[in-house]
Design goal:
The chain is α+β, with helices and mostly antiparallel strands. It has three domains: 2-104 and 213-278 and 554-606, no CATH class; 292-316 and 432-538, HAD superfamily/HAD-like (Rossmann fold, 3-Layer(aba) Sandwich); 330-429, Calcium-transporting ATPase, cytoplasmic domain N (3-Layer(aba) Sandwich), CATH 3.40.1110. The protein contains 20 helices and 22 strands. Strands 10-22-21-20-11-18-19 form a seven-stranded mixed sheet, with helices on both faces. It has a six-stranded antiparallel sheet with strand order 2-1-3-9-4-7, with no helix packed on it. Strands 12-17-16-15-14-13 form a six-stranded antiparallel sheet.
């Protein structure tokens, strides 16, 4: 960058000397020196490309136009065109570096070293040399080098670089930590869970580094356009320089100058650079928000989202069963909960675990006898000398217990003691805090249909669908059923519009792969999510999808603005140049000026 700036300033100095001196020979020498200072790299690149068979590029057009300007005696304009072209290149490199630095800063999460506890000593080594099962020491202020589980200590963890979430997370014994985050306060000892090559931070870095290799349709179109456009432009310029003078419409000098103006204007650099830069910026802007997009093609697809299909558990809901309500028909709630906790002690089912969790007191095994678990029904246990039945409605009916069925969204555990119905406990999977906000936001951003597909019961699924205001709910689906339903939805959607499936990236891999766009929730710590999806939302917030769509729409809008603006200005100046109305200075604006404006506009994609 500094060398380019010095070269431009040197060229400007000699250009001014050439304009100010009255001696023609000195003036010509100054213009020639200025031209060689700023244009030598372009001339060399053009010549090298010709020998490699790549003739028609922007270097060739610039070299041909500026050498031609010297040939017809327009020395100041020849230098000016090359000088402003280099100024445009300088801005272009600045913009690209700025975009790369923004992503580099965002992704500056690769740890340099790890403190490993070996034979009683703490050794500093490279993360790649640490093995699974070894204990690492993470000091306050240090970056977590590997995916690990805390074995000793507690602290607060800054995950903002990976998730975009500003609120620190608490880490204590048993908490799994992902590499790339920062330990803020206390000293932590942790067991390594994955090797560095398989760690979250390494996979994320690899994902971001290769994101630009998957080009969007817009980028592919611009690349093909430039390939055919440049030779056509050269041919038209030759015709413009030769045919009119042969028909006695003017002099060769006049039409050669017009042809040179035509060549300068027609340089496609504003399009070739600004459109890829816009998508590069869009990927960077999404990353800042904790959204990893695996390529420009996926970012472009997001902008055309028409249908969003959600998995339920772990996507719209927290995926954790919790006691929502204790309904005691006889006795106190505390007594009902105690009998239920003792009865479920032998069971490892998630519902049983949720009851034991809310009980919190110590369960004395000596008070439990003659316990049996009936698959699909519940448990039959003797607690405190009383026979306790705890399970679903089938269990109550099996033993002839008179009870009142409940119609609520969730799993209901009915409890009977010594043949008498005592009440029930409602256990359900909670909606995530921002699920309702996400659904509304997606409608605001233009999504036409919101659908939920789940393997859960129809009653629970429909209750949640009604609560959220979803358009359709498909329940009690096996993985194969989900794929079949996905095929039907794909056939129903509008042409050129996209269907997005949002899931956890583990159980829904077949559906993620079949959708137009697979979006994985909670990518942090989920290897399958990072591998399976096209887009990874690095937190468990469904509302991030709306943010991703907004970033995609903004990026596509900026790319279209640049394309329309560049083509409109160039066509206008091309026509005026061919008619002899616009000169070389107008051509410089149509090329360099448009490029600089388009590049600066493209940088807006980086901003959230």
């Amino acid at each position: 960058m500094k060398k380019n700036l010095v070269r431009i300033l040197g060229g400007v100095l000699f250009f001014i000397i050439g304009l100010l001196v009255s001696n023609e020979i000195v003036s010509l020498a100054a213009f020639l020196i200025a031209y060689l200072i700023v244009g030598w790299s372009v001339l060399r690149e053009a010549i090298e490309n010709i020998f490699h068979g790549e003739i028609f590029d922007e270097n060739f057009l610039m070299a041909l136009a500026t050498v031609g300007a010297f040939f017809v005696g327009e020395y100041p304009e020849g230098v000016a065109v090359m000088l402003f072209y280099q100024v445009g290149e300088f801005f272009q490199h600045y913009a690209v570096d700025h975009s790369r630095k923004s992503i580099a800063e965002l992704m500056d999460i690769r740890p340099d070293s790890a403190n490993v506890k070996r034979n009683g000593d703490v050794l500093q080594c490279h993360p790649e040399d640490v093995k699974i099962g070894e204990t690492i020491v993470i000091k306050p202020g240090e970056r977590i080098p590997l995916d690990c589980r805390v074995t000793e200590g507690s602290s607060m963890i800054d995950t903002s670089m990976l998730t975009g979430e500003s609120v620190p997370r608490k880490a204590e014994v048993g908490t799994e930590l992902i590499s790339g985050c920062i330990n803020m306060k206390g000293m932590l000892y942790a067991e390594v869970l994955r090797e560095f090559s398989e760690s979250t931070v390494n996979k994320i870095l690899d994902l971001v580094e290769h994101a630009s290799s998957n080009k969007s349709n817009s980028e592919n179109f611009i690349t093909k356009f430039a390939r055919y456009y440049t030779p056509i432009v050269v041919l038209v310029a030759v015709i413009l320089a030769v045919i009119p003078p042969l028909l006695s419409w003017g002099t060769f000098h006049e039409y050669l100058y017009r042809a040179l103006v035509f060549l300068v204007v027609s340089c496609p650099c504003a399009l070739v650079i600004s459109v890829p830069l816009t998508f590069f910026g869009g990927i960077g802007g999404a990353s800042k928000a904790g959204i990893l997009v695996k390529g420009s093609n996926y970012l472009e697809a997001l902008a055309d989202t028409e249908i969003v299909v959600f998995d339920k558990t772990g996507t719209l809901t927290q995926g954790v069963f919790e006691v929502q309500e204790i309904d005691a028909v006889k006795g106190k709630k505390e007594e009902l909960l105690e009998y239920a906790a003792y009865a479920e002690y032998i069971s490892s089912h998630p519902i049983a675990e949720s009851i034991k969790k809310v009980y919190r007191k110590e369960i004395k095994e000596s008070e439990i006898s003659q316990s049996s678990e009936m698959a699909g029904h519940g448990v039959d246990v003797t607690v405190f000398g009383k026979r306790v039945l705890a399970g679903n409605a089938k269990l109550m009916k099996k033993f002839g217990i008179s009870f009142t069925p409940r119609d609520v969204a969730g799993s209901i555990v009915y409890i009977a003691i010594d043949g008498e119905y005592y009440g029930n406990i409602v256990i359900a999977d909670r909606l995530k805090a921002d699920t309702q906000t996400a659904v509304k936001a997606l409608r605001d951003v233009g999504v036409k249909k919101l659908i939920m597909m789940t393997g859960d019961s129809k009653a629970i699924a429909e209750k949640i669908g009604e609560q959220l205001g979803l358009d359709y709910v498909y329940a009690e689906l096996l993985p194969a059923d989900k794929v079949a339903r996905m095929e039907e939805l794909l056939a129903e959607k509008s042409l050129n519009k996209k269907l997005v499936f949002v899931g956890d990236g583990i159980n829904d891999a077949p559906v993620l792969a079949r959708a137009d766009l697979g979006v994985a929730m909670g990518g942090v710590g989920s290897d399958a999510a990072i591998e399976a999806a096209d887009v990874v939302l690095m937190t468990d917030e469904p509302s991030k999808l709306e943010t991703a769509i907004r970033v995609a729409k903004k990026t596509l809008r900026i790319a279209k603005q640049n394309t329309i603006f560049a083509i409109a200005v160039k066509i206008g100046i091309l026509i005026l140049g061919a008619l002899g109305i616009a000169g070389m200075w107008a051509a410089v604006f149509a090329d360099v000026g448009v490029s600089v404006i388009a590049i600066l506009n493209a940088l807006r994609a980086l901003r959230r």
